[in-house]
Amino acid sequence: MYNLAMLLNPVAQRFVLHWGEMGSKWGVNRTVAQIHALLYFVGKPMPADEITETLGVARSNVSNSLKELQNWNLIQAVHIMGDRREHFTTSSDVWALFKTVVQERKEREFDPTIGVLRDCLASPDLDKEDAEAQQRIKEALDFMEALSNWGEQMLKLEPSTLMKMMKLGSKIKELLALIK
Amino acid sequence: MYNLAMLLNPVAQRFVLHWGEMGSKWGVNRTVAQIHALLYFVGKPMPADEITETLGVARSNVSNSLKELQNWNLIQAVHIMGDRREHFTTSSDVWALFKTVVQERKEREFDPTIGVLRDCLASPDLDKEDAEAQQRIKEALDFMEALSNWGEQMLKLEPSTLMKMMKLGSKIKELLALIK
DNA sequence: TATTAATTTCTGTTTTAACAGAAACAACTG
DNA sequence: CAGTTGTTTCTGTTAAAACAGAAATTAATA
């Protein structure tokens, strides 16, 4: 049947394939990452069938991957007049996508870890252990909590503000010295 | 033989096992993550044998995982007087560890992706495509470059400065307004 | 230099996740 | 309501990674 090589120009192919590889390295299923890259590239809603043909994977694989992407709030199902099929689309706002991923991973993986560290510290078993181990766990917890809180604050800011902050770079140092 | 259940108290077990799970979700081999968590917890150099016994995995598995951790600059081999064996240790400074991970992942995964995006934009094939797709790739590239530059700047700062910035949280907004 | 200790490399197995294809299900249409 | 289209769920297969155990290698000691 069709496949990616026939339906996408070489640039799109490279983009989609590389994004799939990237996904793998960060614990994201390759097909899931490829589909998202494809939707970002084409920039308009696509039905599942078309994704299937373009990527040359099984329809069921696409179905499950689309569900996964919806669970991650990275794609939305939309409807096109005169077409029964669901079409799927993703935001073309890179910042918004990034924020979504950060948000979701924070909730799924980061916050639960903070919970575990709190449990560890609260456990009576740790007292028997040497005080230094306890201190290290505490430092790990403090760090993760600080990062978590900061992340939440950052997610609230508008992209333009965040961009300004990033452009500031290490000048932040002098700025911080000023207000201290 | 020995295993984790006998040699570590329940808190340490929980910590090490959870860290292993975390690793998996972020594309890090479970054993690799467990070993690192173990070394962090015990806070002093351990020989490979002891790690093997404590975690209840194969010696070869430990050997390969230790090499991986060394490649990531997360652990160091040290020597103990009167002991032929290599002992392995990790920093107890969470900030330092975090920075190392960020640095390494940036170099291995982030920067190469930036390269691919640059290639995509430079390719003559993209011109034939609609201009909007080109724009989206460009936005993705701009975003990643900004993030990359910012990351580099942040990695240069001392932990204390970074901590201050994080504590600042969304107050950064007002601060930015001031200097604009 | 023979022996022991320590570590790594190699090979095969196991486990897990990814995936395909078929079947079942649901929704729509004429 | 029969037929068609579209989607999901289920089952088995494949592929990839993780891992164990043995063999080989290297380093140290006596």
Q: How are the elements arranged and paired?
A:
The structure is a homodimer of 180-residue chains.
Chain A: H1 4-7, H2 10-25, H3 30-42, E1 46-47, H4 48-55, H5 59-71, E2 75-79, E3 86-90, H6 94-122, H7 125-128, H8 131-156, H9 159-168, H10 172-179
Antiparallel strand pairs in A: 1-3, 2-3
Helix pairs in contact in A: 2-3, 3-5, 4-5, 6-8
Chain A binds a DNA duplex (30 and 30 nucleotides) through residues 29-31, 47-49, 57-61, 63-64, 67, 84-86.
Kindly describe this structure.
2 copies of one chain form a homodimer. Chain A has 180 residues and is mostly helical. In chain A, a hairpin with a 6-residue loop joins strand 2 (75-79) and strand 3 (86-90). Chain A has helices spanning 4-7, 10-25, 30-42, 48-55, 59-71, 94-122, 125-128, 131-156, 159-168, 172-179, and strands at 46-47, 75-79, 86-90. In chain A, strands 1-3-2 form a 3-stranded antiparallel beta sheet. In chain A, helix 3 (30-42) crosses helix 5 (59-71), helix 4 crosses helix 5 (59-71) and helix 6 runs antiparallel to helix 8 (131-156). The model of chain A has no long low-confidence stretch (mean pLDDT 91). The relative contact order of chain A is 0.07. Chain A has 10 helices and 3 strands. The longest helix of chain A is centred in the middle third of the chain and has 29 residues, at 94-122. At the A-B interface, helix 2, helix 3, helix 6, helix 7 and helix 8 of A face helix 2, helix 3, helix 6, helix 7 and helix 8 of B. Chain A binds a DNA duplex (30 and 30 nucleotides) through residues 29-31, 47-49, 57-61, 63-64, 67, 84-86.
